Amino acid sequence: MKKILLIFTICFLSLAVKAQDKNKEQIKSLKVAYITQEMNMSKAVAEKFWPIYNNYECLQMDLHKREHRDVKNIAAMSEGDADKRLNEFVDIERQEFLNKRKLYDELKQIFSAKEIVQLHQLEADFNKKLWEEYRSRKGKNSRN
Known about the structure:
By secondary structure, the chain is mostly helical. The chain is built from four helices and no strands.
């Protein structure tokens, strides 16, 4: 019985992970379409822009994962380990800033400064809409 329960749990978790990955891919596709459309990007510009932007997002995601990795037992953590972790937080924030600076410098080869500001605003708008949709769906699910 335990083996059946274990197999069922593993199957369920793998389906949940696949669904989560699918959702991430859908969100990524929506973001690409939204930014491309709102910026009125030509195919040639999009072919230059998206590799740069995707690389930036990948770097930022790696930093985000490093920053938010679990600390197993904070109560048992030594002051020295806590100090190392704090320094790591600062180093991550510094690297995030440097990544953003590099992104903007690279984008200046493709877009004007005004267009980069527009891109920045579009990212914020997209994230706001995404959160609104998430809250809306979460509210509908909690009423059922």
